[in-house]
Design brief:
Elements: E1 6-12, H1 18-31, E2 40-46, H2 58-67, H3 81-85, E3 89-92, H4 95-104, E4 111-114, H5 115-119, H6 135-161
Parallel strand pairs: 1-2, 1-3, 3-4
Helix pairs in contact: 1-6, 2-6
Length: 167
């Protein structure tokens, strides 16, 4: 049976840089695709609760603006068990995020993957944190996020085209 909606969560540490950028980018690609637009819900959260309720870091917002992504993203959220268990697919920015998510999850049907493995399968590479970096580093981070978002969108289309979306 084809699942009607898929809930996808992008996860980083504080939920103010990488994961909100990834949320905005993936939502942009989903919204631009008539097959996916009403089937994929994208959110983001952090493994730490340092910034709960805060907006995206301004440097991340500026990187998105420079690249032409206008979505606002959600306010920082904590990736607790309840949040994670509501997701169908959780995408961590680093191996540590993936490990932390798996420790918290009790929903065995939630798939957990590393973002860069979508781009370079099996390499288990982390997406660096641009928080202490320059605008150029935010732009570089965003380029990886963009490539991951494009690959995820293609994967979603392929899975639905096969008549199944078992994440």
């Amino acid at each position: 049976m084809v699942q009607s909606r898929v809930r996808v969560a992008m996860i980083c540490t504080g939920n103010i840089c990488r994961s909100p950028m990834a949320e905005v980018v993936l939502q942009h690609f989903v919204d631009a695709d008539s097959l996916l637009r009403d089937r994929v819900d994208v959110t983001s959260a952090g493994t730490a609760n340092w910034h709960v309720g805060s907006p995206m870091d301004e440097r991340a917002r500026r990187a998105l603006d420079r690249a032409g992504f206008d979505g606002r993203g959600s306010l920082a959220t904590f990736a607790d068990r309840s949040y994670l268990d509501r997701q169908d697919l959780v995408i961590g920015m680093t191996r540590e995020h993936v490990h932390e998510v798996r420790k918290r999850l009790s929903n065995q049907s939630t798939e957990v993957i590393l973002l860069r493995n979508v781009i370079e399968p099996g390499r288990d590479l982390d997406l660096f944190d641009p928080y202490y970096g320059s605008d150029d580093e935010f732009d570089e981070c965003l380029e990886v996020v963009r490539e991951g978002g494009q690959r995820l969108t293609s994967e979603f289309r392929w899975r639905w085209g096969e008549g199944s979306f078992a994440v």
